[in-house]
């Protein structure tokens, strides 16, 4: 007997999982991370002096980073404020406010100064930190260049 054109054929069930949508999602996430990663590197571009130093221990609170460019501009990074230009008076007021809000922890400040700065500019910045009551101050350096030993 001939099969009717209107009859249905039962196909076997395919129990394997379709992974194509998961691969599509993974590739979209990969592209997103590739695009956003260069945006995560922040910081004022300064030419740090090179020296071999020991790392200092940081507390539970992230340190405040103060960048001093060779032309005298001061930038401050703390909490959610990244590379905010600041004047000397506002710097002292902000640091006093951070000291008061630190809940008993001492505020740690890292100075990110250009190696071409005048000594007086760095000393003026450190005097301002002292006025604000900051007791923990560190200086950032770059990695030293490898020496050629023959």
TrEMBL record:
Its main location: membrane. It holds the Pfam family ExbD. Coiled coil: none annotated. This is Biopolymer transport protein ExbD. Belongs to the ExbD/TolR family. The gene is exbD_1. It is found in: Cell membrane. The chain crosses the membrane at residues 21-40. GO terms for cellular component: plasma membrane. One of its GO terms (biological process) is cell division. GO terms for molecular function: transmembrane transporter activity. Keywords: Cell cycle, Cell division, Cell inner membrane, Cell membrane, Membrane, Protein transport, Transmembrane, Transmembrane helix, Transport. It comes from Psychrobacter piechaudii. The keyword Protein biosynthesis does not apply. It is a single-pass membrane protein; Single-pass type II membrane protein.
């Amino acid at each position: 007997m001939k099969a009717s054109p209107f009859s249905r054929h039962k196909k076997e069930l395919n129990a394997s999982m379709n992974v194509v949508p998961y691969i599509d999602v993974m590739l979209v996430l990969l592209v997103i991370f590739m695009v956003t990663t260069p945006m995560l590197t922040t910081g004022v571009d300064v030419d740090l002096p090179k020296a071999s130093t020991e790392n200092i221990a940081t507390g539970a609170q992230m340190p405040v980073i103060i960048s001093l460019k060779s032309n005298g501009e001061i930038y401050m990074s703390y909490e959610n404020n990244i590379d905010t230009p600041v004047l000397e008076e506002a710097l002292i007021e902000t640091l006093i406010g951070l000291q008061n809000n630190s809940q008993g922890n001492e505020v740690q400040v890292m100075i990110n100064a250009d190696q071409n700065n005048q000594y007086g500019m760095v000393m003026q910045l450190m005097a301002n930190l002292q006025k604000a009551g900051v007791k923990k101050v560190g200086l950032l350096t770059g990695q030293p260049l490898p020496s050629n030993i023959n």
